[in-house]
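Progress against Task 2.4 (sequence-to-structure conversion) is shown through the following example record, which the project officer requested during the mid-term review.
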Amino acid sequence: MCAQIILIMSEKSPFPLIQTPHFLLRQIVATDLTQIFRGMSDPRVTEYYGISYETLELTQAQLDWFELIYETGTGIWWGICRRDEPQHLIGTCGINEWEQDDHCAEAGFWIFPEYWGKGVMLECLSAMLDYCFTKLSLHRMQSMVEPDNPASWKLIEKLGFQLEGILRECERKDDRYVDLRCYSLLAREWRNRVQPQATIVHFPAST
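Structure tokens generated for the chain above:
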């Protein structure tokens, strides 16, 4: 599965645009607010995500967070779109808790239910991981998943993540404590998988 990474140059740090055979991972912008709200207000999406919003106005906090972690170098999240509909966001994926000195980060993702079980996130996360390990020089990627969310932990297992253990009752949710399955993937483990290298294209600052 070949992905193309395009660095769009601007006055700020370049934001990586990642193209997979069928999807586009791009910067999340103000016009995505409605789609972000649609996802973050859908109980099927937020059941295991940990964040939800009741109004469009409150959802702006999520867009502010995407911008904040990118500007501070503590994370980067992409909006997922079909390549033939680049303005129509269908989900998000990215990293946060990015410790640049230690070269580690935590991965997260969500997508609208109508795209579940169709291989969308497998394709997009493969490209995202390749970018993070090869271009951001990450050494370790971590992911925390609830045991009752097999769709997510089976997905990351397909990507090569290894289960390190169960964090018992480490998170409070709906007035109860829940366990988390702790997964990790190391850069050398990713390199040992059969993954074609991405193509990088640099656009001039005037673009």
